[in-house]
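1st attempt posting a full record on here, be nice pls
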Amino acid sequence: MVAGKINALRQNNDLRRLTLLIGVALALFGVALIVVVAYAGWSANRTAVIRERQLVENALDNRVSRVLDEQKSIAWWDDAITNLTRGRVNTQWADVEYGAFLSETYHHSEVFVLNDHDAPVYAYIGGARVDAAAAYDLVRPVIAKVVAEARGAAPTLRSRARAFEAGRSRYREQLGGINPRWSGHILSVQGRPAVVSVMSIVPNVTPSLLHGEPYLLVSVVRIDDAFMRELGDGLLLPDLRLVAAGRDTGALTFEPFSADDGASLGYLQWTTKQPGKTLLLFILPLVALGVLLAGMLTAVMIRRLKRASNALATREAQARHDSLHDPLCGLPNRRQFTAQLQEELDALVVTRNSRRVVVACIDIDRFKDVNDTMGHHAGDMLVKAVADRLKPCLGPTDVLARFGSDEFAVLRTAANAQESIALTDMLQRTLSRDFEVMGQTVAVTASIGVAEAPEHGFSSDELMRAADIALYQAKSQGRARSMVFCAEMAAEVEQRREIEVQLRAAIENDALDLYYQPLISCADGSIRSAEALLRWRHPERGDIAPSVFVPIAEEAGLMPALGAWVIERAFADSARWPDLEIAVNLSPVQFRHVDLSETLHRLARKHRLEPSRILFEVTEGVLLESTERNRSILDTIRAMGFRVALDDFGTGYSSLRYLADFRFDKIKIDRAFVTSINERNRAMTIIKAVVTLGRGLGMDIVAEGVETEAEAAAMRMLGVTQLQGFYFSRPVPANEVAGVLEAFARATHGEARAPSQIRAG
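the predicted structure (as tokens):
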């Protein structure tokens, strides 16, 4: 029985190889035949385009030669020397013989005469003589290149007028040994293409009339529709045009057209002859149809042969696959992943080489919010979309698995630590792009924990435990980041748990405090507002920064209680400074888990507070989540009389859509732009744009993080409304706010004190 199964498997494999060989051979032959016919037709059409383009180029060269020849007829003339040189210009003669003659006979658009110092002494434009100096100044930058070449300078422009150049020696003999000079080119003159030609004015009978450098005759012939029509008629291209932009569409051809100095003049457009059209329109479809029919017949025969062979193998492979893979994504499950991980670890022990086995555990941040707001079906679709995006980004030897819910894992055998870093960077970049789920855009971030063997263990259990701890550390430090396991992480996790317990006790025992940092008015230097900042002085650990305990509070579910404590303390403290606006920060967690409007209404009544004296600052994190719900909450807060500010503007996405969708009273520019204003002009430009936009929408603009006098001066100059930073005052306890207010009040009323004294006051 076993031998029969082996023989059947061998026959199936032979049949697969045979059918594959036949199919590939037929496919290659058909594709090759189609490609040959298509290339022949395309090549014939392209050759026609190249030939016609060369004809156009030759016609343009000849047109430049023709303009020079038209100039020659009146520039090489004794009368021209008599009437134009020797310190005077006979304008009436020039009008008839130069201006009117060239304009009316040969359609030259502009005619100039330059003296021996290349200064304009005559100009004829639009059928009349004009001010030579003023008219020439408009075209001098372009024409000067051609004039310099005509004076003998080294050529810098593309060579033109080859037909005219061929007669140089003959022209010299005609002029009695005088060496005439000229230059003709196609350039952009005042934004429009034109033929610019320069011809030296020399005698044709009496060489002795010429003294010193000859005067120059300059002509500008605009390349307009009439010019191109005349050119096309001579080439049997009646629809030859010069257009601003275009692309090849069927028989209509667009070829780039450049000036002789390299500047783009647009595109030459014409209908090209298509000798390969018959091949492409008739023969190629017939060949393709024949190849398709042959392929279909062959496929039917091969399919019948393979059907019986594949049925048994497919059922067997599917059963094995189902037992080792996730049914939603088709990825390996935990069982399969752990088995492959142990195989890699065993191989590492046996070979004892320098390679390392890397495990990366991935958790989609706030996946529960997607299930809660959009439903579990949307969550399943998001999980599948994440898997579909990760799979093509991994290497052929990498293993991607799904452990369940929103958890994934990646296994990679790496040569060094840099490959581990590259893996996590790639995973973060891949997941940072938005997903489309059920017609809605979902922004996803991921927390990643990484463990490596042999550093972190030689068994799959040890390595997975280390990766899970690193993942927990990544999530506890704010999510959307990657962490590599280290021995200190276990102790750090324990420390975070201790801080959580102690923070809960501090909230209950009122052991926290609020400090206030003033905001300085740019109008008069007075303090109009102060921001409430949370501080925690631990009896054993000392000062614990908000950046440490606030994330722990968010993760432990303490943020609603902590936020309510801050709001109530700020409301109570505000009674001590009746003329001062108090700014309080609101976190995204307060929007999700607290009936914020009801809490504010209750506390405002309790402390008999005028809501307009309180400014709530929200960050982009509030605006990114549940936009409709948060907009409703913000509108309710403003309807109650409270004011709202957008904090840290300039970081994150900083979408202008927020300013349109949400109504704010203030915008606070992030300190990163303020501190870099003396080093980068771009920061100043951005701040100026934000100020202009905010003022136009009726908002006050606050600059955060002002630490130097130069930064303060720059912010005032850009029109910022208020300033905040250590240059004026650090955050101070509530009982020191009155002293700071008094110090700034004295300074505002003219008492001379140094800024440092005011800040220290």
